[in-house]
């Protein structure tokens, strides 16, 4: 698998582990805590793999951007956070920046 593909999948897993961490109630709920531990490990391993080929700053920014945008989007979809037009626009800005880094990288 290419570095960019692994990086994007790792960014998606970042959103999964962040959401699982929130659902774990401070790591007191075993199933979400286990999901957090596994997905965090795989996500970081994917980031490390991608950084072997991609510039560190670009890879990290893309990984964080994907994870952050998906985590906020999921929180909005589940009602944990409000989905105001401004918040949606700001998340789309993150997505646009991630795409920009891929295009110029």
Sequence of secondary-structure elements: HHHH
Computed Rg? 14 Å
Q: What number is the mean pLDDT?
A: 95
Q: How would you describe the shape?
A: flat
| Strand residue content | under 5%
Beta strands, count:
0
Distance between the termini: 18 Å
Structural class: mainly alpha
Number of helices: 4
* Uncertain residue segments: none
Tell me roughly what share of residues is in helical segments: over 70%
Major β-sheet profile: none
What attributes characterize this protein structure?
mainly alpha
Secondary-structure blueprint:
Blueprint: H1 3-23, H2 30-51, H3 56-77, H4 85-104
Helix pairs in contact: 1-2, 1-3, 3-4
Q: What is this entry, summarized?
A:
This protein has 105 residues and is mostly helical. 81% of the residues lie in helices and 0% in strands. It starts with a helix and ends with a helix.
């Amino acid at each position: 698998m290419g570095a960019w593909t692994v990086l994007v999948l790792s960014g998606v897993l970042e959103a999964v582990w962040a959401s699982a961490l929130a659902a774990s109630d401070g790591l007191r709920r075993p199933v979400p805590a286990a999901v957090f531990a596994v997905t965090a490990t795989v996500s970081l391993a994917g980031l490390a793999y991608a950084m072997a080929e991609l510039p560190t700053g670009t890879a990290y920014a893309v990984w964080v951007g994907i994870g952050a945008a998906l985590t906020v989007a999921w929180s909005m979809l589940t009602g944990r956070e409000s989905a105001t037009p401004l918040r949606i626009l700001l998340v789309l800005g993150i997505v646009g920046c991630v795409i920009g880094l891929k295009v110029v990288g």
